[in-house]
Amino acid sequence: MKSRLSSNALWAELVLTILTLLALNACTPTTDGDGAAPTLMPPTAPADVSAGDVCVDKNTGASLSYQAAVEIAQGSECLMEGGQLQETNLCNEDTGTWWIDLDLETPNCNPACVVDLTSRTAEINWRCMGALPPQGTEEPATPAGELSAVAWYGHIVSAPAGSGFDDYLVVLPDGTAEIGLTGADAEIEAQIAALRDQEPPNNHAHFWGALTCDSNDYGGCQLVVSRLRPDGPGPFFDPDPIAGWVGIIFSGPPGLQVDDYFVLLGDLNPWYGIWSADPAISDQLEELRDTSTIIRVWGELLAGVMDGNGAQVQVSRYEIVAESEDAAPPAPEWPVADDGMETYLNEDYWYQLRVPPTATITESGAISFPAEELPEGVTADDYLAQLQDQYGGKLCVHIEYGLGYMYISAPPNTGFRYVPCGLTGLGAGETVEKTIEVTIAGQAYTAQGFEWIGNMAPCLPPRETLDCHSEMMRIVLDDGTQIEYGSMHKPPATFADYLAKGKATLLQILASYEPTPARPY
User: Fold this and answer.
1) Which of 9, 28, 117, 190 is deepest in the core (most CB within 10 A)?
2) Mean predicted lDDT score pLDDT of the chain
3) Phi and psi at residue 8, in whole multiples of 5°?
């Protein structure tokens, strides 16, 4: 009986397979290069399908489970090109769509199957960013077809009189592109007109849309803008997903916030800041700067942040495409210019460093001393006055800028002997030890410290605000000077905000530290 049931089950499964193949072959198949119909295979669903995942359109309230989206995708044009659905997926509540990555080989494109929550239809979005130019070509090929613009940064200028056009977009940095543009609707067209010929800093914005060349517009190309975000407070869009963008990393220009740029390779080369929350990936990306190494990155893009061209590629993973490639553009030659920093000089202990003009600097002299140090026959007040006269008022220098701080303690104050000059305690929580190699006055040092993550109220459940997650690092120079830097307790800013916006400036201040020849001790 058991054997007979097994045979029936096998027969039923065979019949089901035959019916499935017949149904598939009833469709009109595409043909390969020699005209023969390719073999059709049943579509494979992603391994992580979960019926419990539901996407809801913010605007209409329409909802659709991920399982249902997969079923719609499997019966749509998305699989007509021979691709397969991947596990990577995203719910975009703003546009009311499920995005499911497709395994479909297309040069420098990262296609996704986009399922509309309301219409219950699906189509391919190719997400092409241009192709790498052939080796040995000096000029990029003319853009063909349609390119997606994702947070391109620039400003709008009136077209020359007699050109027949209203305006054009200057994509930054200068020299990237000058292209015609139009709004996808009347509202966006009005926003474009409002930005035209504005004076800095009110003229810059990020642009999203589709670029088509061989068009009757300025420069032969037209960007149909689907949305834009002027510089300044709000609106802040949800991050754009990044899947396999190809580019190269360059060091940034002299400045306070931008230490490197990610340049997309292709017909156009927009620039973005780049960063990773994973310390290991962050270190590896830093090592790739200016090496002509072409990489492919995954993650998300944030616009309206303090980074290169006002946007930041946040990398969750990457892979190396080529160690060196003729297609890689040369490193930019940044003009030598004032970095906007000011020189601070400590005349008591003869060192100097460069700080932002908006930084707050506090100097302190001796305010106490160890009891055993008090000489016989001298009052405490008199001895403290002697110390203040001997060591001056700059034993400790405290610098605050943005979300970060720095303490510089002179050698006589070793162990905070005469004045506190750094953090003296932490709340209950976990400390994760860390080290980083830094260069000060041309010499390599190892900064040692930790991240602190609070595990008591109000930090439960775990919060990422700076009062619950912080960093402290210390370096002791050869002459005994101790330098400490880290994040300030400034909620509602988060630890990620400090890493993205404040830490680079602290390291720049640290790198500028320079002892002067004369020393009074």
Assistant:
1) 117
2) 79
3) -60, -40
